[in-house]
Structures
1.
Amino acid sequence: MTELRIDPDRPVLIAGPTASGKSALALEIAEKQGGVVVNADASQVFDCWRIVTARPSVEEEARAPHRLYGHVAYDAPYSAGHWLREVVPLLSGTQRPIIVGGTGLYFNALTEGMAEIPPTPAEVRAEGDSMSLEDLLSALDPQTAARIDVQNRARVQRAWEVLTATGRALADWQDDTPPPPLPLNACSALVLESSKDWLEARIRKRFRAMLDQGAMDEVEAMRDRFDPSLPSCKAIGAPELMAYATGRMTLEEAEESAAIATRRFAKRQRTWFRARMEKWRKISPEIGYQLS
């Protein structure tokens, strides 16, 4: 058991792979020390999924203030830039922010700053949508390719769109980044780490709990609106459960496919955290912690 001391006067950042217990820790800090829990998960911003994306429940939201959860329409565009513009006002609010999630790019923008890149024209995005991952990646400059997750199509396409629309590489824009809204030395930054086996068991347990809590009701509500190209519809578990709902998978196949997708996603998250969050305090939920 690790003793976890948190300065009650500083903002808190909590990152970690999916299913690692980030939200529970954020809520515990908010209840014991005060503060507002702020979402930093790209899938949990959308209004179509609460259970599927493991957003805090209605009961949990009643225990402490929560912000930036489920406030974006399922088909609305949303990026790290949108998130940063929404989170900055919360940094100077009356309640200390406890920012929690698994989207490393959000934390990176917050603590290192974010380049003010012009919006991507619709025709450029449409062209990018029609290209393969390999073609998108081959068009990037080496500096940009070295900085992004080249297995993440959304990140690769975003880099390609920036280069195509502006004529400047994403790496060049990043090098002109303004000062960060919340420097790392001004907050308590925690990243949760655990073994793969421990996390795998939690991933499978959470999937079954999602079904018990009514995940299929959310899926049925989205049946006629589901679009695999939308970021909201790429949430882990959503494509698999929709395949089950439409008879393209058995429930057992959907569970296994979702577990594999979640495991791969968690691996990408851990790789990001190791590379970009080496100065953050490491916490093991597997061993346990005692908040003091």
2.
Amino acid sequence: MTNTINITDRKRTLIFINILITCIASSMLATALTTALPPIIKAFDISVTTGQWLTSGYSLAMGTMMPLTAFLITRFPTRKLYLSAIGCFILGLLLCAAAPNFQFMMFGRILQACGNGVLTSMAQVILLTIYPVEKKGSIMGWYGLSVGAAPVIAPTIAGLLVDSVGWRMIFCIAIFIMLISLVFAVFVFDNVLENVITRFDLLSFILSAFAFGGITLGIGNMGNGAFVSFKILLPLAVGCTASVFFVHRQLHLKEPFLELRVLKNKEYTLSLIGSMLLYFVMMGSSIIMPLYVQSIMGYSATLSGLVTLPGSLVMAIVSPFAGKIYDRIGIKKLFVAGALFMLTSNIGMFFITMNTSVWVASLYNTIRCAAIGCLMMPLVTWGISGVKIELTAHGTALLTSLRTIAGAIGSAVFVGIMTAVTNSSLTSYGARAPIHGLNVTFLAMALSTTVLLAVAVFLVKPGKE
């Protein structure tokens, strides 16, 4: 069975361009608020652990939405679903731009996450469907540039906006870009994916929401108190219990809400594990870096954004080439190189002090971005390429959902670690307690990256898969 559909090269290119515009704007909003987080926290008079939910809560809602996308993509016409997702995202942007308080803004972020969850899954399924096998690695490399570089360059742009015109302008600019994308999509998008009549299993969706939400909420609350507490253990218990029931139900349904049998494919499972570990560390560091520059070192939001700019440029260079390298030699060497780069950057951040220049931290961030460029889209392409075309939507939804949830957990866990270590070391470290908390946090990231490296070295076969 072929993995592509017959459309003209011109139509394929126009669809790809539209997807890039949409994903650049939507992906930027995943991390744009990391730089703007300190002034937003001040404006709404909330704590850091509460404020970080504007990012990790976004990822949580997006991850909860993604299992539903497998049903939506196969059930509804491509064009209508794509336009509806953009509309939902724009509505969320409008609410955030006018938000009078944290709760109102959080609701807007959830709407953005729902729209982005559908857009992200659809984009990957569409590209992997309309392009031939020999071009998938390259095209996913360019796509990876948009979804990978955009979240990294977003803090730079956000920093300039925060210091010049205020954080609300972040959403206003995104609204303008998404409106352009919406008009463009009306004229160029066609129904390029096949649809089948399937039954919506409401119980499975509810179970998936409790599973993903409970686990992420429980872990996210770890930064607010002792581990043995009601607000941590209860969500974790609910999430784990719902996960068991969800998995059991999917394995016994004739038409699963989310086909988990794709995990029987070894390459897909390894790509899923690698993607989750990558996002776990990546999203955690994207939150920590602006806090380091602004809250610990006391610099402006503009400088905070500029510190991440070199990394964005490196990712822009690496991502397309990584796709081409994958097309030629497979995943093994890319996987190992990316894991080593990320491990190096995290170990480097473990040794910085209050006297270390922020540009040294910028160098380590650049190395981390090179790792992300090596790993993000090649892992997805490698994993999905072995999945049957009729299961592509399910495989993409599961992978994107779990890696997004892993990113939300990473944000919550690493902010929690930094906060807890800083508070507990105030007596012994004094003014150096915040930087000590940062060092321990990046040590935890290094340990997580070691697991990623072990997967690449010992479990992935050499050569082109």
3.
Amino acid sequence: MSIKKVQVGNVNCGADELFLISGPCVIEEESIMMKTAEKIKEVSEKLNIPTIYKSSFMKDNRSSVDYYMGPGIDEGLRILEKVKTEFGFPVLTDVHYPDQVEAAAEVCDVIQIPAYLVMQTTLAVASGKTGKAVNLKHAQFLAPENMSKPVAKIESTGNENILLTERGYAFGYNDLIVDPRSFYHMRETGYPVIFDVTHSIRKYGIPSADPNGGAKQYLKTLARAGVASGVDGLFVETHPCPSEALCDAASQLDMSELEEFLKPLIELHEVEVKWR
């Protein structure tokens, strides 16, 4: 079926060219954010893959009140704006509450609604009203065909700049499963589909700083399955030293591995496009 094209800065989401969303899970020290952005820029230009820089100013779904949640909206948006200015990336961040949306939209090109919150009507409507692109993360509890419901909430505001992201489905027992049928169902909405491969390997119930909190051995296999299934973009969280990351330490990709990780996926995407 025909997929709507969603323009995000210089990234044409839904075109025949694979695009990338990448950056640290949560905003940490400014030096780490800039170092990561510099490396992503290098890889993006070398591989000619259009890229959106992603990092969260707040992670409100950490499993303990003792875990790092981010620097907050003011400092977080300041750093994202600096990344955008210095490296020319469009930028993406999460929002958790309707009163965060307006400020985020002043800086960010994409407003992301986290998976746990994707059915929150007031959050969806507030995000849609900004006119910015809205990335809807597939809820772990929601059948993929039912992603049409939050899509309709964004459309009700007159905004059709919508992206959908798969990040695994929870069957309980602290494991996530990626079913390639979900890519099909979400593309049936008519909007670009992204595969968040790094979040899909998280092991719930295990702290993200624990090496067992992410099944990195599956990253390449899952990424190739998603690209072969016809996704339009890849979501890959990356960090200069994942083991020291303040969030999702066990699942983020070391930024030194990003280029080699992407190369075969870009080639595979070119083959998949020919077979459409």
